[in-house]
Design goal:
Growth Hormone, Chain: A; 15 helices; MFS_trans_sf; MFS; transmembrane helix; membrane
C-alpha cells in the first residue's frame, strides 16, 4: 500500500491543524504508518527476548537459564520503566515526536549488534538494558502520536491500527527469531535493521509541525509531575487494570520457549523453536480478528469498559487451558483464545486510556507514566515467574496465578467514571 504523507498536526501557533485531534478525522495515511511503526517495535520485543535472548542465555549457562533469564529480563525492564516516561516528558518539552522516534529507531541497530557480540550474563544484561532504553525512547514518542493527532471519535480505529502491530509484529518476530535460532547474532541485526528502517519511513512520511514547547521545570517539580497523573481517579484505575493484566501476561509469555521445552508434550520431530513459529501466527490471526472487531465495535457502541473487562476475562480463561493439560493441542488452544482476549484488550484499552488522560498538553508524559504499567510489571514478572516455577517445580501454578491477575485486571476498569 502506498503511504501518503499526512498533514501537520498543529500550526506554528499551536492551533489545531488538519488531521489533529481536534479535527474530524486522523491525518490521511497516519493509521498505516502507526501500524508499521508498532509492528517493527513488537517484532523486536517478541523476537529478541522471546527467542534469541532466551537461546543466548541458555547457551551461556544451560543449568541456570530460568533464573538468569528472569534476572536479565527484570533488570532490563527497570530501564524500560525509567526511560519511557523520561523520553515522553522530553518530547513534550521539545514539542516534537519524530526526532525521538528516529533517534530511538536508529540506535536500535548498533545496540543489537552489541547484544549479539557479548558472551557473559553480565554483559548480556548491560546490552539488553541499552536495548530497552533506546526502544522505549522510540515507543514513548510513537505512543503519543494517537492522543496528539487522532480525534476522540476515531480513537478506536487508531488504537486498532496500533493494536494490530502486536499480532503482525509477533508473527514477524517469531518467524525471524526461529529462522535465526542457530545464528542469533545475525538475528539481532535483522531486528535492529527492521526498527531503524521503519523509524526512517515513519518520520519521512508522517511529517509534523512543532507543538508549543514547554518551559523546563525544576527537578523536584518534574518528579512530582510524573506522579501527578496518578492522582486522577480514572487514570489511576486504568493504570491499575493495565498493570495487573500485563503482569499476568508477561509472567507466562516471557517464558514461552522454556514452557515449550519443559512443560508441553510436543509431537515427535517438532522442536520448541518450530513450535513458537507455529503458535505466534495462530495467536496473531486471533489477535487481528479481535483487535479489528474490538476497536470498531467499541467505537460503534461507545462502550470501552465492557470490551476491556470481557477481553481481560477471556485472557484469564485462556491461561487455564495449559494449566489443566500439557498437550500440544492445549497450547494451540491457549494461543488462539489468548490472542482473541489480549488483542481486543490492547486495542480497546489503548482507546480507553487516551480518553482518561488528565491533560492533553502532557499527553506524552502521562502516556509514559501509563507505560510504567506496561514496563513495571515486566520488572516483577520474571522474578515472580522464576520463583513460582522453582518453588512449584513446574509451570502449572504460573498459569493459575496469571489467570487470577487477569481477572482482577478485568475488574479494575469498573470504577472508571468518565468512560462507558
Amino acid at each position: 500500500m502506498a503511504l501518503s504523507s499526512p498533514g501537520p498536526t498543529t500550526s506554528d501557533t499551536g492551533d489545531p491543524g488538519p488531521g489533529s485531534a481536534a479535527s474530524g478525522r486522523p491525518t490521511r495515511g497516519l493509521l498505516p504508518l502507526l501500524l508499521a511503526g508498532n509492528t517493527a517495535m513488537y517484532a523486536l520485543y517478541i523476537g529478541v527476548p522471546g527467542l534469541l535472548l532466551a537461546l543466548q542465555i541458555e547457551e551461556i549457562d544451560p543449568a541456570g537459564k530460568v533464573a538468569n533469564f528472569g534476572l536479565v529480563s527484570g533488570i532490563s525492564a527497570i530501564f524500560a520503566t525509567v526511560f519511557n516516561p523520561v523520553a515522553g516528558a522530553l518530547s513534550d518539552r521539545s514539542g516534537r515526536r519524530n526526532p525521538w522516534i528516529l533517534a530511538g529507531g536508529l540506535l536500535a541497530l548498533p545496540v543489537m549488534l552489541l547484544l549479539g557480540s557479548v558472551h557473559t550474563i553480565l554483559l548480556v544484561t548491560i546490552a539488553w538494558c541499552l536495548g530497552q532504553a533506546v526502544m522505549n525512547i522510540y515507543q514513548a514518542a510513537l505512543t503519543s502520536v494517537v492522543p496528539d493527532r487522532v480525534p476522540m471519535a476515531a480513537r478506536g480505529r487508531a488504537s486498532a491500527a496500533v493494536g494490530l502491530g502486536l499480532p503482525v509484529g509477533s508473527t514477524i518476530g517469531a518467524l525471524v527469531g526461529a529462522a535465526f535460532s542457530e545464528d542469533y547474532r545475525t538475528g539481532y541485526l535483522v531486528f535492529g535493521a527492521i526498527v531503524a528502517a521503519t523509524a526512517v519511513l515513519f518520520t519521512a512520511c508522517a511529517r509534523e509541525r512543532r507543538m508549543p514547547a514547554k518551559a523546563p521545570l525544576p527537578v523536584r517539580a518534574q518528579l512530582a509531575a510524573f506522579g501527578s497523573a496518578l492522582t486522577d481517579h480514572d487514570f489511576r484505575w486504568a493504570f491499575i487494570g493495565r498493570a495487573l493484566l500485563v503482569l499476568g501476561y508477561f509472567a507466562v509469555a516471557g517464558f514461552q520457549l522454556y514452557i515449550l521445552k519443559d512443560h508441553t508434550e510436543l509431537p515427535a520431530g517438532l522442536s520448541p523453536e518450530e513450535a513458537v513459529a507455529i503458535l505466534m501466527p495462530l495467536n496473531a490471526i486471533a489477535m487481528v480478528v479481535s483487535t479489528v472487531l474490538g476497536g470498531w465495535l467499541s467505537d460503534r457502541f461507545d462502550r470501552r469498559k465492557l470490551f476491556v473487562g470481557a477481553s481481560a476475562a477471556l485472557a484469564a480463561v485462556a491461561l487455564l487451558i495449559p494449566a489443566v493439560s500439557t498437550s500440544w493441542t492445549a497450547m494451540l488452544a491457549f494461543s488462539a483464545v489468548n490472542g482473541l482476549g489480549f488483542g481486543c484488550y490492547m486495542a480497546v484499552d489503548t482507546a480507553l486510556v487516551t480518553m482518561v488522560l488528565p491533560k492533553a498538553e502532557d499527553a506524552a508524559r502521562d502516556m509514559g507514566v501509563l507505560n510504567v504499567a506496561n514496563a513495571g510489571p515486566q520488572i516483577v514478572a520474571p522474578f515472580v515467574a522464576s520463583l513460582v516455577v522453582s518453588l512449584s517445580g513446574g509451570y502449572t501454578a504460573l498459569f493459575l496465578i496469571a489467570a487470577v491477575l487477569s481477572v482482577v485486571g478485568a475488574l479494575a476498569v469498573r470504577p472508571i467514571r468518565s468512560v462507558r
